Every structure is written in structure tokens, then in C-alpha cells.
């Protein structure tokens, strides 16, 4: 089989890269082994314009968030991509203050980020749902993306069009040739790895400064809690598919394996009992490894020695926001030879990768 681009992985990056290439008329083929608990599939799907305890503006927020909103909306209406609902919904964050210092910080930041940090008309309006005594602020506009519907829908679209092979990638079978690559019976001009944290442990880009992070979350049934906002007080309670809620997440750099831990569940249940005024039932406990980076910037571009080998990876906890934007950059680079943003271009690690 002949194709222009072979994409390894159909998470956020692989989905968006294949989508934009398809839009540009560039033939591509996706190789991906289905796994139910990848970092994208268990993520909350939140797009947040501010980040961290210091409430800093998300990197490139004014550019990447409007782009993401338009991209997810556009994908929802893509011909033959059959979805019953729009993939993206506005879902603002109710940020309850856990200490007086947090409230003071919000007051200071609200003057600098007035377009994102708002004060409510009534700080007592959630008294029937939560225990809180220091009030709250609102982070808006924030959004939530139905990631599982996106992944499942696009996977079905690729399968229906003969553009996806459900199989594990075996690196020892990849052959680099003068005019491209060959992998088993597939010949392509280029190969792009969108395989999440797997790229950090093997392959052509393992020397890059990856910093994988383990995340865990609980899926909950909470009767009586409105599902039109994200609720945050240290950790978050986020609306989830099927009328459930998602509670988490952890950010562990040191971990033994990918499995859920009893310690996280115990800690999160204790937090929920102290915060929620509703009873809750734990339906599931999720865990996965996110492909984050030391610089907190994605990796995008081509290997300095092997020019047919590319990478789109490392979007970390902001993948739902960053993946559409940088996948479009890489797709445009493939289709039209346009440049990749220097902040993410892997060429900046050329010396390291040329060892």
C-alpha cells in the first residue's frame, strides 16, 4: 500500500494531524492499537484560559483557544463524521478559594486578566452543594470537549475509508529508505509519531526532554449536582459523559506503573466528603500517563538526520487546547512547506538528536 504520510497513534495529536491532512487533500494512513485507557480517553477535556496556582495566562491562550473552539466545532460538522452533538461546549470554571491567600491572588490577577477572571454576583449561590467559606471566582470562557466521542467517531471514519489499521507499532519493522519509509506492506514518503509517552522510551526521539506525568481520576455518580459548570477547589469536579462526573487529577512524576492507586482514591474520596454536600458513588477509577515535556512545550517537526521521520507529541495537560493548533501547523508544513513555530520545532534539539 502506498500513502503520503503514515501516522503512528490516534490520540489527540494523531486524530488532528490526520484530520488536517485529510482536509488538505494529503493522503495519510493511521496505525493505532486501540486501548481504552489512554491519557486522551480518560482526560476531562477541559480548555482553561488560565493555568497553575498562580493563575497565569495559558501559553498562547489568545490564539490557541479561539482556534481550538473553531476547530472542534468544525470537526463536529465534518461530512460523513456522524456525531449527534457538537464536540465542544462552554463550561466555565467555578474556582472556590481554599485559603485567604488564594482569594487575594485571584483579586490581584483579576485586574490583569479581566477578560478571563470574573467575580460572581452572589458568592453564596452554591451553598446547597458545597462546603466553602471564602467565596469563589469564575474562570470564563472555559470549555469542555467530548474527547471519547471525537476519538471514537474519527476512528470509525478512518476505518470506513480504509485509512486505519488497528495494530501495535513494532519499531524493528520500520525501514528508512532514500525516498521515504517502509513499514511491513506500507510505503510512505513520511512517518509521523503521535504515539504519546511511548516516544519517550524508544524510537528516534527518545533523547528529547520528555517528562511524562501520571494522572488519576475517579468517575462519580452525584445526584443533585448541576452539570453545567466545572467545580474546582484544589482538585476539580467536571461533568462527564452519561450524566456522571469526573474528579481529579493527580500529577505524579514518580510512579511505579500505569495502574490506579489506592492512595489516590482514598485521598480523593476524603476531599470529596469535605467539599461536597451531596452523597457520591464511585463508578470507576482511571489512570494513564500523559506525554508532557520539561519545557512544557510540545514537540513538532522533523528529525535532523532522518528527514522523513517526524514527531507531534508532548502536549501534556494542555493537549486538548494545543493539539488542534500544532497539528494544523505540521499538516501545513507537509502540504505547503510552511514553517513550524520555533518554540515547538524539534530542530531546536538538533545537536541532541544528531548524537
How many distinct beta strands?
21
Helix content: 25-40%
Please state roughly what percent of the residues sit in beta strands, choosing from under 5%, 5-15%, 15-25%, 25-35%, 35-45% or over 45%: 25-35%
- Rg, rounded, reads 21 Å
Overall pLDDT confidence? 95
Helix-strand pattern: EHEEEEHEEHEEEHEEEEEEEEHEEEHH
SS-based class: alpha+beta
Shape: globular
State the separation between the terminal residues, measured CA to CA: 33 Å
Largest sheet: 8 strands, mixed
Unreliable spans are none
Helix run count: 7
Task: Name some characteristics of this structure.
alpha+beta; 8-stranded mixed beta sheet; globular
Question: How would you describe the overall organization of this protein?
Answer:
The structure is a single chain. Helix 2 crosses helix 6. It contains seven helices and 21 strands. Strand 20 and strand 21 form a beta hairpin. The model has no long low-confidence stretch (mean pLDDT 95). It is an alpha+beta fold.
State the gist of this model.
This protein is of the alpha+beta class and 355 residues long.
What are the SSEs and their pairings?
Elements: E1 2-8, H1 12-24, E2 28-31, E3 46-47, E4 50-51, E5 56-57, H2 61-76, E6 88-90, E7 93-96, H3 100-112, E8 117-118, E9 136-139, E10 143-145, H4 147-160, E11 164-165, E12 174-177, E13 180-183, E14 186-193, E15 213-221, E16 230-233, E17 235-239, E18 245-248, H5 262-275, E19 281-290, E20 299-302, E21 309-313, H6 319-336, H7 350-353
Parallel strand pairs: 1-2, 1-14, 2-11, 7-16, 14-21
Antiparallel strand pairs: 3-10, 4-5, 6-10, 7-9, 8-9, 12-13, 13-14, 15-18, 15-19, 16-17, 17-18, 20-21
Helix pairs in contact: 1-6, 2-6
Amino acid at each position: 500500500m502506498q500513502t503520503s504520510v503514515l501516522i503512528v497513534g490516534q490520540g489527540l495529536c494523531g486524530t488532528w494531524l490526520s484530520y488536517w491532512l485529510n482536509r488538505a487533500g494529503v493522503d495519510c494512513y493511521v496505525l493505532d492499537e486501540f486501548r481504552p485507557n489512554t491519557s486522551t480517553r480518560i482526560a476531562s477535556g477541559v480548555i482553561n484560559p488560565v493555568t497553575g496556582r498562580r493563575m497565569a495566562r495559558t501559553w498562547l491562550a489568545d490564539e490557541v483557544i479561539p482556534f481550538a473552539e473553531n476547530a472542534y466545532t468544525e470537526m463536529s460538522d465534518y461530512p460523513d463524521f456522524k456525531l449527534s452533538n457538537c464536540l465542544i461546549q462552554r463550561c466555565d470554571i467555578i474556582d472556590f478559594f481554599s485559603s485567604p491567600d488564594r482569594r487575594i491572588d485571584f483579586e490581584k490577577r483579576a485586574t490583569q486578566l479581566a477578560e478571563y477572571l470574573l467575580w460572581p454576583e452572589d458568592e453564596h449561590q452554591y451553598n446547597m452543594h458545597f462546603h466553602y467559606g471564602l467565596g469563589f471566582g469564575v474562570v470564563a470562557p472555559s470549555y469542555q470537549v467530548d474527547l471519547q466521542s471525537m476519538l471514537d467517531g474519527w476512528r470509525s471514519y478512518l476505518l470506513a475509508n480504509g485509512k486505519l489499521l488497528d495494530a501495535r507499532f513494532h519499531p524493528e519493522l520500520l525501514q528508512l529508505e532514500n525516498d521515504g519509509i517502509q513499514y511491513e506492506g506500507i510505503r510512505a514518503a513520511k512517518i509521523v509519531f503521535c504515539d504519546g509517552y511511548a516516544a519517550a522510551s524508544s524510537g528516534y526521539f527518545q533523547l528529547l526532554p520528555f517528562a511524562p506525568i501520571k494522572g488519576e481520576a475517579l468517575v462519580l455518580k452525584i445526584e443533585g449536582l448541576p452539570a453545567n459548570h466545572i467545580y474546582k477547589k484544589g482538585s476539580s469536579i467536571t461533568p462527564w459523559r452519561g450524566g456522571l462526573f469526573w474528579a481529579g487529577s493527580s500529577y505524579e512524576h514518580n510512579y511505579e506503573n500505569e495502574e490506579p492507586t489506592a492512595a489516590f482514591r482514598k485521598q480523593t474520596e476524603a476531599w470529596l466528603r469535605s467539599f461536597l454536600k451531596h452523597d457520591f458513588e464511585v463508578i470507576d477509577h482511571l489512570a494513564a500517563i500523559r506525554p508532557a515535556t520539561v519545557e512544557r512545550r510540545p514537540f513538532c517537526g522533523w528529525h535532523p538526520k532522518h528527514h522523513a521521520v517526524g514527531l507531534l507529541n508532548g502536549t501534556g495537560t494542555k493537549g486538548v487546547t494545543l493539539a488542534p493548533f500544532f497539528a494544523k501547523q505540521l499538516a501545513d508544513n507537509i502540504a505547503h512547506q510552511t514553517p513550524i513555530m520555533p518554540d515547538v520545532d524539534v530542530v531546536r534539539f538538533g545537536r541532541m538528536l544528531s548524537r
